[in-house]
Structures are given as structure tokens and as C-alpha cells.
Design brief:
Layout lengths: L12 H7 L4 H5 L2 E6 L2 E7 L13 H18 L7 E11 L7 E11 L3 E10 L5 E12 L7
Antiparallel strand pairs: 1-2, 2-4, 3-6, 4-5, 5-6
Amino acid sequence: MNQPIAPRPEITLEVLNRLGHDYLPGFLGVQMTELGPGTLKSRMKVEKLHFAPNSFLHAASIVALADTTCGYATIAHLPPGAESFTTVELKSNHLGTIREGAILCQAQAQHLGRNTQVWDATVTDEATGRKLALFRCTQMVLWPRAGGS
């Protein structure tokens, strides 16, 4: 991607954080922290609810942070006239874990097309900067149906 596309001006961090308040991202404590052309950053403080019974950070918690960050980045970068999006594929590679603190995520656009977007995300330990997971997803852009139904 040569020139990152600027996010839609009506989509702000406040809008994105409010969007997930009553849904899974809000329950998990996901907070968007920085929005820019072709990128979005987030943070999640780890709590007991993010862990598996074996006392390790649950992989689904990491995926939820990365998927939410990439999804919100997609919302911020939808082409004019697009209605919404849906995830059609995701993959994650888990490299490590933490037992306390917070995790950060940075999503970076790899492809911002008319019908699809591809986002990569890196999840890191806030305290050390150590990579915990690499994530990639493909989003299908949804357009209004002809005839309105």
C-alpha cells in the first residue's frame, strides 16, 4: 500500500470507543488509543476474565483485541457509500503470554479496496514491548442493496 487512506472524518476515537461500550469490546475493556491513516492502536488491561483456567492469558482474549482493533479500523476506513463490513477470514499466531499488566495492539492496513480490506495486527506486552501475537484478517465491504431490501 503506497499512500495510506485517511480515516473518515466523522469516525473519531470517541465514536469508536462508544461503539463497543455495551458489547464484547466494552465488557473486555478494549480501548482505542490512536487513529491515523491506515492504522489504529488499542489497549486492554488484563483482568481475571481474560485468563483461561490454567492461569494463562486466553488466546480468545488476544484475538478479541486484535479483531476488534482491525474491525474498528475497517469502520474508520470504509469507502464512501459503503454500509458496513463483515470478517471473512482471520488468522492468529500466538508467540507469548503475560499474567499481569496490559496488552497493546496496532492494526495496519495492507489493502484498502472497494470490496475487501486486509489488516495485519501485532499484539504486544505494554510493559516490555514483547510480541505476543501476530494477526491478519480479511474484511468484506458491504454495500447497500439495490432496491433497499
